[in-house]
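Reopening this one. Same input as before:
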Amino acid sequence: MAVKITTKEYKRVDLVLVDGRIDSNTAPQLEQALRNIIDEGRYRIVVDLTDTDFMSSAGLRALIAALKQVRRFNRGDLRLAAIPTKVKKAFELAGLLDLFQAFDNSIDAVGSF
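Same output, byte for byte:
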């Protein structure tokens, strides 16, 4: 199953909408979308996982790599919005929930910047 990654640029933050499965085949697409935003000098990112069915360790690694880049030199942050229960379990099993700020919806996440 393919993944659809949509990015929206707002004045102070970028919103990344992930629709589908993030596994070893699709994680590079997520990584590239996040890298494109960071390469343009924008370091405030919200990843909306509302429509994400599955997140493998490859997807988690892509998010962690982007998080490290945006937090470097206190430039920004990567925040998560609307994490589905199945995906939240992956974060819990990996012990990563404390690493990210998570919000119930993308409006709250975007507004937190």
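So the earlier flakiness isn't reproducible anymore. For the record, The first strand starts at residue 4 and ends at 9.
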